[in-house]
Amino acid sequence: MNTSSKTAAKWAPLLLSALRIAVGIVFIRHGMQRLFGFPFGGMDHHFLTLNWLAGPLAFAGGLLMILGLFTRPVAFMLSGMMAVAYFAGPFRESRNFWTLLNDGAAAVFYCFAYLFMSAAGGGAWSLDRLLRRTPLHFASAEWAPYLLSVLRMVAGFLYIQHGTEKLFAFPGGRMDHNFSTLHGFAGLLELPGGLLMMLGLFTRPVSFILSGQMAIAYWLRWAPRGFWRSLIVGEASIYFCFVYLLMAAVGGGPWSLDRLFSRNRKREEPLLSAKELVGSSEL
Questions:
Q1: CA distances from 178 to 148, 166, 185, 187, 200 (A)
Q2: DSSP 3-state assignment of 273?
Q3: What are the residue ranges spanned by the domains of the chain?
Q4: What is the mean pLDDT of each run of 10 residues along the chain (283 residues)?
């Protein structure tokens, strides 16, 4: 194993935990609003409706994800919940696949991020690891690299739409060709960057650039509005930043052009094993 692959193997379980914690924090806010009306209203006590049921599930599930406790079964349950939320909500209301950019984008991202974590577990910083819990081999970590590839494709597809919105006003939103501004310049990164992520081409350097772009967008545009409000308006910036940061270390997984081209050159790109990706004690 070369030096870069060793470094990736060292950081992968830590960055997996960072992604899990970040996703848990932005996710638990949805539960807090429905249950307690905190931080900015949205309380829903219409019992036995799907919207109300999402409140306790999002709150309890988000808390367990932050702690990294029962990570695999909880992540699997939340992935299914978000699939139902997308098809019962944005898709049913518009029958338009392109609603992904609006109300459906977060639901789709959470669905596939949690599906990946249902195989990968909680990483190095988790109560599961501290307590050395492996929940009855609920999910095989052998699937983790493949689900990482699926997550990469989904994240890239969602990201492309932010670029087409700014460059072509498609599928909606505000076109911005003022490339001297942060918002306008972002379109020049989001469209090609999202496409390269979908294809899994130059995954590590592209992911590093996009992660930095999202960090800058969050701290310059959303963070000044306050922590709680930034979890609402800057939600996508947060989860994109951390998912791209993980991929900057581990690559695009086995289903990627990087992997295909490296095989054709008879020099395969280092591919982290499931054991290296999730941390040895997670298996």
A1: 35, 10, 7, 10, 29
A2: coil
A3: 3-282
A4: 66 93 96 89 74 88 97 96 87 64 83 96 91 56 90 96 86 76 87 97 96 96 93 94 95 93 68 72 47
169: number of CA atoms within 13 Å, CB side? 4
As a whole number of angstroms, the distance between CA 254 and CA 145 comes to 7
Q: Residue 241 is encoded by which pair of tokens?
A: 């930043």
- Asked if 193 contacts 159 with a C-beta cutoff of 8 angstroms, the reply is yes
> Shortest CA distance to 162 belongs to which of 179, 176, 147, 148?
176
Query: Phi/psi at 102 (nearest 5 deg)?
Result: -100, -115
Global pTM exceeds 0.85? yes
Exposed, middle or buried, 249 (CB in 10 Å: 0-12/13-18/19+)? buried
Evaluate whether 129 touches 142 at the Cβ level (below 8 Å): no
The number of beta carbons lying within 10 Å of the beta carbon of residue 16 is 31
